[in-house]
User: What shape does this take?
Amino acid sequence: MEKIIDYLDDEEFENVQLYTYSFNFKNMNDDQKNDVINLFNDWDWESGLHVAELAISKDSDSTIFTFKSPKIFELKDDENWTDEDLDKNLLTKLVGKEQFISHFEFFETGVAELTIKFFDDQKNKYKVEVSKYSSLLKE
Assistant: This one.
């Protein structure tokens, strides 16, 4: 497992519950991997994904990005999002216009064409649909 981001010892993550999430990319090449690493680095701040740790591993034909964040994940329709959700629900940072997943669409390396799965902290699996607004579909 290759650690990319490691802020676990930072004061902001002391005595804070962290949740573990992962993205699974099938048949990802090195250029695509680098694009996603750079995107995580751009989104690691508190108003983004608030990443405490990011590690990458390989599993046969998949590249797995596993990250820890104090943000909870609750799947709900965007018309039901509250101000608290916008601040604390990871979902609001992953899907929607100009959010994390929608950026996959703009990589010249073809990240958006890959089969991508997202796993929440309860190990529920979601199909990632990449588009201008993006979505997660529970499997």
In short: Strands lie at 2-6, 19-26, 53-59, 62-69, 116-119, 125-129, 135-138. The longest strand covers residues 19-26. Residues 2-138 form one domain.
